[in-house]
Every structure is written in C-alpha cells, then in structure tokens.
Amino acid sequence: MIDLYVYYKVRDGDAASLAPRVRAMQAQLGAPAQLKRRPEAREGLQTWMEVYPAVAEGFDAAVEQAALDAGLQPFIQGPRRSEIFTDLSLCA
C-alpha cells in the first residue's frame, strides 16, 4: 500500500468552482480521500493537495485519468504533481 499526494496551483477566483468538481471526482474513485490547501495564497494562487492514504500501487494512474475525465485542468495553473510515500519500516 502507498499514500498518494497530488498537489497543484489554483487561482483564488477558480477555487469555488473547482472544489465541488474535485470532491465529486474523489467520491467516484471509491477510496478514502482528503482535499487540503495551504492556508495562504501567493500572488493570487492557492496550493491544493489531494491525499489518498493506503491505496494500491498504480492508483496514481487512476487518479490522473479521473482528473482528466472530470475536466479539472482548465481550473489548474501549471501541472498536477504526484508524490508517493510508503510506511517507514526499520530493519534491525
């Protein structure tokens, strides 16, 4: 299992239109999901993050396809970036 983090920039003026679209997309994916943002905006841009904890490897491809299908790109400034993290296991 992995934890998937997807982050991107959103114009202040597009936030109200984009939020329900992202939440609907996340609901259709059928996995636990969170939608977060940095508390401050810079130069009229917010940084948003979608969080998908404990999902299967390869889930990132499903998320990106769902984002395309949901038509999110016109509301996003620049690329959507994905990061994958795994649990830290310490070996003795």
Question: How is this structure best described in words?
Answer:
The protein has helices at residues 15-29, 59-69, and strands spanning 2-11, 34-37, 45-55, 76-85. It is α+β, with helices and mostly antiparallel strands. It has one domain: Alpha-Beta Plaits (2-Layer Sandwich). It has a four-stranded antiparallel sheet, with helices on one face. Helix 1 (15-29) packs across helix 2 (59-69). The chain is globular and about 45 Å long. The mean pLDDT is 95.
Question: How do the strands and helices of this protein lay out in sequence?
Answer:
Layout: E1 2-11, H1 15-29, E2 34-37, E3 45-55, H2 59-69, E4 76-85
Antiparallel strand pairs: 1-3, 1-4, 2-3
Helix pairs in contact: 1-2
